[in-house]
Design a protein that fits this description.
heterodimer, A: 142 residues, mainly beta, OB fold (Dihydrolipoamide Acetyltransferase, E2P), 2 domains, five-stranded antiparallel sheet, three-stranded antiparallel sheet, 2 helices, B: 386 residues, alpha/beta, Peroxisomal Thiolase, Chain A, domain 1, nine-stranded mixed sheet, two-stranded antiparallel ribbon, 14 helices, globular, binds zinc ion
Amino acid sequence: MAEKPVAQFWRKIRSVYNIVGTHCKTCGEYYFPPRPVCPNCRRKGELEEYKFKGLGKVYTFSVVRQAPPEFKRQVPYVIAQVELDEGPRLTAQIVNCDPEDVHIGMRVRACFRKIREMGGGGIIVYGYKFEPTMKVTGHNKE
Amino acid sequence: MERDVAIIGVGMSKFGELWEKSLRDITLEAGMYAIFDSGVSGKDIDGIVIGNMSAGRFTGQEHLGAMAADMGGLAGVPAYSVEAACASGGAAVRQAYMAIKSGEHDLMLVLGCEKMSDVTQGEAINTVSVATDWEWEGMFGATFPALYAFMARRHMHQYGTTEEQMSLVTVKNHKNAQWNPWAQFQRPVPLEIVMKSGLIADPIRVLHSSPVTDGAAGLVMCSADLAKKFTDTPIYILSSEQASDTLSLHDRRDITTMDAVVRSTKSALKESGLEIKDIDVFELHDSFTIGEIILTEDIGLTEKGKGGKLVEEGVTEIDGKYPVNPSGGLKARGHPIGATGVAQIVELALQLRGDAEKRQVDGAEKGLAVNIGGTGGTSIVHILGR
Ligand SMILES: [Zn+2]
């Protein structure tokens, strides 16, 4: 994994830096990651680029304590499925809060962070993580 | 021309961290045992299928079809290699089933193998994560256990499933594995130890998770008319079905259900003319114990959300109403990725033949196996009968 070529990440920069996905004009569904084909409409679908607002809530999450070498320095970290306000879910880290305070339903917003290094001497990948929209105190559940 | 398909021989290598054995050694071992068990000779075999996920990354070797044929001294025989992540073994069984059913092949050797202990733990974690949607999940730090933790967390949230119930699956499967001579962990483990084992991806602990395993499994399969020539106890494949779902977990409608399992099980039952209550023994994909809980619901042993109760009430014990994973499952038999789907069928065949010794399910006549690829992107279901 250490020698992953740059192009694999460069191709996705628009999506991964700005949460750009797709919206189907035929059925109205939003997609992130962007899809080349709308699964609802297939050839009748008409997809356009859509920049998500970057707001959503935690749908489910885990605290990763055993990670591959590229993430070892971040352990323990919170990884979650975030349900975006437009509908789709994506997988991202939750930062700027205590892992103990993360809960299902917590409101979060996107922030721009370093995601990982691709091994020693490999490129550094940047992109989205999410943080609580409000300063969390205690263990309040929504 | 559609023909019935039979299993006439089964074989296994030992499962475990086998430092002294290579991918070739274990694959040959399983294949030879299956051939000896069936009573066929090399000249009877007209095709080989081998299931494997990532030998290229785990050992640096691909082109496993030719490797398997060559190692067995069968270099003239056509050999196919198939991959469907953790369902690669089930995919191999299904490929052979389709080839024999259609009449293209008559008698085939089916293999599944994975050699995982030749790489470091970090590289093993990275390699296993290729079974996820690597670009949109693994890439952002979602490890394979973390994705099953996503399912577990939702299952607990929506249905009140408990850590204790997830741990009871481990206790049951370890208990069963003590009677399985090929299993990686042939010893029971107490509930307290499971519940205090280290967290790897909350709420999943190390003892809720299948281990790193080297191993291979083999079958000899043929058309039903040929089977009688070689054995008095052929086991028939009554149905073989497969379904797909989205590659990534975040695109699923509901992450507490595997729609591909629901679909493939329904078709397999329909194809064989059976209902789920007619099945006597089950091998279900428990790469993480929450997986077994979800699958017992998705195949219809209980309603959605009650899978935890099922294990708590002992229904899935060997002497329970619906015995699940008498082999020890992926948790305790071990999970050499590409071998698992074949090993499940080996176990069911032994159970239906009455050859499962101390872990025998009394009078088992019908068995069902579910083999999952990734987090449910592939589901392969086989129903066997005597
Ligand atoms: Zn559409």
